[in-house]
Write a structure and sequence with these properties.
alpha+beta; five-stranded antiparallel β-sheet; 9 strands; binds zinc ion
């Protein structure tokens, strides 16, 4: 028996968003990542979304006293804890699959920023650089996953739900006030059957109390 989980997350964006792409663009130092299918649209890449949700899930689980490996240190990952299972570890494929979120209705502009070198105390070295920023009201992301049982799929949905609610800013330019967002809607279904809000809340509570009884 296996269970297929499908999750759709809608975020309200409270600022512009920036994730640096690899494509060079004339006059812009840090251009946005764009869709490979439709180069006209910027995207929030699957890897960025995955890293962001993983970080948030790690923080939550650790706060509950549960083991959660640090995603920024692949060499130290156990491959067994809940975050390793869902988001992957070296020699362990992640159970969840993330898709790029296309910003199909965005408008973009370019901001100038000054970076300061803080190494020298006497004279700050200044460098002007430009960052391309995408603006859109909302963003929708999709995640899917395959689990051994319905209960495991529901547990994963609950963790994604609390992780998405707890995170507040995404992307590389967070320190410059970009990437602020808030979860607006979360729908999850297992084998095509949608989980109710009560299900999700109950599962989230179970995740917490399971942790408490283990401690
Ligand atoms: Zn782990």
């Amino acid at each position: 028996m296996s269970a297929r989980l499908e999750v759709r997350l809608t975020f309200r964006l409270h600022s512009g968003i920036h994730v640096t792409g690899e494509q060079a663009q004339l006059w812009t130092d840090k251009a946005l990542v764009r869709s490979w299918k439709d180069p006209g649209h910027p995207v929030l890449p699957a890897t960025t979304l995955k890293g962001w949700l993983r970080e948030s899930a790690e923080r939550l689980l650790r706060g509950l006293g549960q083991p959660a490996c640090d995603g920024s240190r692949p060499g130290a990952m156990c491959g067994l804890c809940l975050v390793c299972e869902l988001f992957g570890a070296p020699r362990r494929r992640s159970t969840l699959r993330f898709s790029d979120a296309v910003l199909a209705e965005s408008r973009t502009d370019v901001r100038m920023n000054v970076s300061l070198s803080r190494h020298r105390k006497t004279a700050y070295e200044e460098r002007l650089f430009s960052t391309e920023v995408a603006w859109q009201k909302e963003l929708t992301a999709h995640i899917e996953g395959w689990f051994g049982s319905r209960a495991e799929a529901q547990q994963a949905a609950a963790l994604l739900y609390v992780a998405a609610r707890a995170g507040f800013a995404i992307g590389a330019a967070r320190s410059r006030g970009l990437g602020w967002l808030k979860l607006k809607a979360f729908t999850a279904s297992v084998d095509g059957k949608e989980l109710s809000d009560e299900d999700l809340v109950a599962q989230s509570k179970a995740l917490v109390s399971q942790t408490e009884s283990r401690a």
